[in-house]
Amino acid sequence: MSQGERTIAVVTAGLTTPSSTRLLADQLAAGVRDALDGRGVPHKLVVIELRDHAHDLTNNLLTGFPTGALREVLDTVVRADALIAVTPTFSASYNGLFKMFFDVLDDKALVGKPVLLGATGGTERHSLVLEFALRPLFAYLQAVVVPTAVYAASSDWGPHAAALKARVDRGANELADVLTNQAPKPPTDPFENPTPFENLLQQ
Fold it and tell me: Where do the segments described as Disordered lie (predicted)?
C-alpha cells in the first residue's frame, strides 16, 4: 500500500447477476473514485459480492468461526479506511444476506469508520429503508455515516438517471470529504446576497 493510500471496501448484497444493487454499488464506487482523484488522493476500491460468500456466512453463524475466504473478506472490511454498503430492499428492510454479514463482523470493526449507504428497490415508496433500517444498524455499530444515503428505484435507471447521478455524486463527495478530513461545502444559499431593495425599484 502506498503512503497515504485509502482503501474503500464496497459491500453489495445483491442476489442475482447482474443486479441493480451491484450497479448502484459500482456507481457509488465510481463517484468516490472520481472525488478522490479530484483531490489527488491515492486509493484502492475492493468490491465484495456477499452472494459469493452466502454458504460461508451461514456456516459462520452456525459454528462461530469464519472459513478462509470469508475470513479474508472480514479482514478487508476491518482494515478498510471507509465502507460503501448497498442492499436490495426486502420486506421494507435490508435483506438477510446483508444482515448476516454484519452479524458475523466484529461489532467494533466499524467504530469511527466512514460509511456511504445505498439501497435499491422496485418502487420509490421504499426509499425510507435507508433512514429507518440502515442508519440505525450502522449507528449501533458506531460507524460515521455520511449525510447523503442513496436509494435507487427501478424508475431511476431510466429517464431519471441524471437525478440518481446527482445523489450519487453528493454522497460520494461527502465520503471523500470525511476521508480527507475536509469540511463539507455548505449548500449555496440563494438569499445570501440579495439584490438591494433600491435596485429592485430601479428595474
Answer: 180-203
